[in-house]
Amino acid sequence: MAGGVRIAGLVVALAVSVLLAIGLGAATVAPADTARYLWAAVTGGEIAAGEVTSYQIVWQIRAPRVVLAAVVGGGLAAVGVAVQALVRNALADPFILGVSSGASVGAVGVSVLGVWGALGIYAVSAGAFLGALAASVLVHLAARSRAGTTPLRLVLTGVAMAFGFQALLSVLIYLVPDAEATSAVLYWTMGSFGAATWGVLPVVALTVLIGLVVLRRLSRPLDVLSLGDETAASLGVDAAGLRGRLFVLTSLVTGAMVAVSGAIGFVGLVVPHVVRIVTGAGHRRVLVVAPLVGGVLMVWVDLVSRTLVAPRELPLGAITALVGVPVFIVLLRRRAYLFGGR
Amino acid sequence: MRLAFDEVTAVLDGREIVRRLSLEVPSGQVVGLVGPNGSGKSTAVRCVYRALRPTTGTIWLGRTDLASMSRKDSARSVAALTQHNGLDLDFTVEEVVALGRAPHHTGNQRLGARERALCHTAMERLDVAHLATRGVLSLSGGERQRVLIARALAQEPQVLVLDEPTNHLDIRHQAGLLVLLRDLGLTVLVVLHDLNLAAATCDRLGVLSEGRLVASGTPHEVLTEALVREVFGTTVTIVHHRGVPQLLHSLPERGSLR
Question: How far is A279 from chain B, CA to nearest CA, in Å?
Answer without folding.
Answer: 10
